[in-house]
Write a structure and sequence with these properties.
Elements: E1 9-19, E2 22-33, E3 37-41, H1 48-55, E4 63-68, E5 71-72, H2 78-81, E6 85-88, H3 100-111, H4 115-128, H5 144-157, E7 162-166, H6 174-189, E8 193-197, H7 201-207, E9 210-214, E10 220-224, H8 225-228, H9 231-238, E11 242-247, E12 250-255
Parallel strand pairs: 3-8, 3-9, 6-7, 7-8
Antiparallel strand pairs: 1-2, 1-4, 4-5, 9-10, 11-12
Helix pairs in contact: 3-4, 3-5
């Protein structure tokens, strides 16, 4: 099996997640495939980050089976799994004072890429995420949004077909959110699979082909975005009134005031 040559298949068979004694998700059966863009939606504490980390093989599920290419994920040795998946956590750590281009080039070196391949991918990603002018800057001195763009580039530098992103739009302004969507759409079009947790419903709609929506209390919806991201489902999950509206020919969501606690 070789990444990008074998069509990607990620299977969840009766998957359950828990946080301590609390069940977040139970019995999820789902097939995710190359070319799809899944958004993971739900309120704080529902288990979105737990799910993303579990799909990356960083956490064990509370129950069920999770497999990549038909092989149980926990049976994959980490060196064999690394070329298949890239994980972008919600926070970027800067343990060393590296320049932006140095930090990203180090990712390619860890992959064993030759210098020409690494340089070409680096140049392309710096352009796509509007980071050319910051290439020589110390990562630790960047703003939160700039550092987030570097983190996203680091994930894409790994050139793994399975891209797992936890709150990738955090700290990004409107223009750079659109650059993010464009990059992820291109990744899936190439034959990759994108799974991203988001809070912004309109951004999620623009990105998604499919959605997984859950509230951490047992309610769950999964499937094509048109079937999952409905005002009824979203309102139940987030406990706020939600309506869909059309703006400039595009579907968007209006969010009402939160319900008062009893």
């Amino acid at each position: 099996m070789t990444p990008w040559q074998d069509p990607l298949r990620l299977s969840l068979d009766g998957l359950s997640l828990a946080a301590g004694e609390r069940t977040l998700l139970q019995g999820l059966k789902l097939e995710l495939a190359a070319g799809e863009r899944w958004v993971v939606l739900g309120p704080n504490g529902a288990g979105k980050s737990t799910l993303i980390a579990t799909l990356a093989g960083l956490l064990r599920p509370a129950g069920g089976r999770l497999s990549l290419q038909g092989r149980a994920l926990h049976d994959w040795p980490l060196p064999a799994l690394a070329p298949w998946r890239a994980w972008c956590p919600p926070g970027w750590s800067d343990p060393f004072p590296l320049r932006v281009d140095e930090a990203l080039f180090a990712v390619a070196q860890a992959r064993g890429d030759d210098a020409a391949t690494a340089e070409a991918r680096l140049t392309d990603l710096l352009r796509r995420f509007d980071l050319q002018a910051l290439a020589a800057h110390d990562v630790g001195r960047l703003s939160s949004g700039e550092r987030q763009r570097v983190a996203l580039c680091a994930a894409l530098m790994q050139d793994a077909p399975l891209l797992l992103l936890d709150e990738p739009s955090a700290h990004l302004d409107l223009a750079h959110q659109q650059l993010l969507v464009a990059a992820l759409v291109a990744h899936a079009a190439r034959g990759g699979l994108v799974v991203a947790s988001l809070h912004d419903l309109n951004l999620a709609w623009s990105l998604a082909t499919h959605a997984l929506l859950f509230d951490g209390q047992g309610e769950l919806w999964a499937g094509p975005r048109e079937q999952v991201m409905t005002p009824t489902h979203l309102g139940l999950a987030f406990d706020v009134p939600i309506a869909e509206v059309e703006v400039c020919g595009e579907r968007r969501f209006w969010i009402g005031s939160a319900k008062e606690a009893a």
